[in-house]
Amino acid sequence: MLSKRIIACLDVRDGQVVKGVNFEQLRSAGDPAALAARYNVEGVDELVILDITATLERRRALADTIRAVARELFIPLAVGGGIRTEADAEAAVAAGADKVSLNTAALADPSLITTLARRYGSQAVLVAVDAKRDGDGFAVYARSGQTTANRDAVEWAREAEDRGAGEILLTSIDRDGTKVGFDCVLTAAVSRAVSIPVIASGGAGTLDHFVDVFTDGRADAALAASIFHYAETSVRHLKDYLHQRGIPVRR
Amino acid sequence: MPIALIDYGAGNLTSVRKAFAAVGADLFVPTTPAEVEDATAVVVPGVGHFGATRALGADWVSAILARVGEGRPLLGICLGMQWLFEGSEEAPDCAGLGLLAGQCYRLHPSAPSGQGPSDAAERIKIPHVGWNAIELRRDASIVEGVPSGAQVYFTHSFVAPVTGDTVAVTDHGEPFAAIVQRGHVAGVQFHPEKSGEVGLTILRNFVELVG
Questions:
Q1: Which among A70, A71, A215, B108 could bridge A96 via Cys, Cβ 3.0 to 4.6 Å?
Q2: Which residues in A lie closer than 8 A to residue B12 (C-beta atoms)?
Q3: What CATH number did the domain enclosing B31 receive?
Q4: Which domains does chain A carry?
Q5: Rounded Cα gap, residues B74 and B39, in angstroms
Q6: Could you give the CA distance from residue A215 to residue A247 in angstroms, rounded to a whole number?
Q7: B158 contacts: CB under 8 Å, gap ≥ 6
Q8: Is residue B198 within 8 Å of B150, Cβ to Cβ?
Q9: What is the pLDDT along chain A (251 residues), one digit of tens a residue?
Q10: B193: nearest CB among A45, A74, A166
Q11: A76 at B interface, C-beta within 8 A
Q12: Bridge-based pairing state of the strands A125-134 and A221-224
């Protein structure tokens, strides 16, 4: 049986891992390569590097970060933030990324999903959907949660799949950094709508939050950052807990 | 001990080279079929579409088959493993190497689930992405030191059939061949370069086959 994946996310700015609350109030959490090495030993299933303030002049720094993280890592590595063009994706893959995550650029030009899926395969293309509750639905936001994209999250996830995305990385802006739990309603709505894996993100605070998102939320994978960075919870402890509750994990 | 890593534009060569380096093996990427002659062994990596193997024309195929005919080991990874078989329904007009008998086929997704909470665990999504267990069916040198039930990283939609060459199977709604070996020809459907220590053990076993 396919294991539910635990994914650690490194939000990187200027080569340092930072993590904010509701995308703001960033505080430093350390060296990305050191954190990656620790997660690898603890048994994390996958790593995501999100360059949260990617700008043109910093792209070289991101490639250095990817290379440093990938050096001793023999698990999948995804890179997002600032992947705007095919050339950006090529640079990330060349530096050692197995997958690239598209967000704002895919909303602006959805054909980029197809272009990259044709070139690298769908398994290499994540579409990151940042969503916020909006009445009974979920509105998609671009530019790190700053701009509304005037799209419904479920409908956008379906379109991303049709265009060639291999996975959806679904972040609840409402829950990001709050540690009150994943938005299981949002996650289940998207997971039901698509046939590709859905990675739930935003709100992890306790071990039971992961149980909830894998059952009620129907997530295929769960991503967290701060809960792991500050050593509040080890990945190994989390997986033991999930295993005891009958959720299949790699141990 | 040069091992040839075949590049047909669809594989992540960086990761594969890095993982082989971690087990002490240097890989070179031949730019012409003639350069395959120097290889002590051949690795065919790959992700993507079966049709991508068309990039390797008849010259490449005969160069690879010549090495295999001389008894040099061959490892196919993911799409590279499927290419060891006769063909795939993913690209019916594109022949495989035909070293192993059988046709590759697409995994069968379950229908989109209903609204009840109980069916969450049963839904089979395609592509098959993530960590899953391998169940050993028989002894083989490629799985020396690998326990049955070990988890490895998959990302694919098409699979090879379970045959007498199957060493290990994985279940994703249906059992399929996760590891195959026939003499010095071996294949893995998952990505050993992304499968932690278990993956490195399998690569080490292949390198030992090279001698």
A1: A70
A2: 93, 98
A3: 3.40.50.880
A4: 5-244 (3.20.20.70)
A5: 10
A6: 9
A7: B50, B82, B88, B89, B90, B104, B105, B106, B107
A8: yes
A9: 899 999 999 888 888 887 654 444 445 567 888 888 888 888 999 999 988 765 556 666 788 899 999 987 899 999 998 899 999 999 898 888 999 999 999 999 999 999 999 888 888 999 999 999 999 999 999 887 888 989 999 999 999 999 999 999 999 999 998 999 999 999 999 999 999 999 999 999 999 999 999 999 999 999 988 777 665 678 899 999 999 999 999 98
A10: A74
A11: yes
A12: unpaired
Q: Catalytic residue positions of B?
A: 78, 191, 193
Q: What is the Cα–Cα distance from A197 to A89, expressed in whole angstroms?
A: 21
Helices (H) and strands (E) in chain A, counts: 10, 12
Return the axis-axis angle of helices A59-70 and A86-95, rounded to nearest 10°.
30
pTM of this structure: 0.90
Q: Which of B22, B123, B127 sits opposite A166 (nearest CB)?
A: B127
Q: Are A144 and A197 in contact (CB under 8 A)?
A: no
B residues 47-66 closer than 8 Å to A (CB): 47-49
CB-based burial, B17-38: b 16+ in 10 Å, e otherwise: bbbbebbebebeebeebeebee
Interface residue A216 vs chain B (CB under 8 A)? yes
Strand A125-134 with A137-142, pairing = antiparallel
Helix H or strand E segment including A224: strand A221-224
Predicted-complex ipTM score:
0.86
Q: Average pLDDT in the B80-87 region?
A: 97
Contact A2 B49 (CB under 8 A): no
If DSSP states are collapsed to H, E and C, what string results for A122-141? HHHEEEEEEEEEECCEEEEE
Counting the structural domains of chain B, the total is 1
Domain of B21 in residue numbering reads as: 3-210
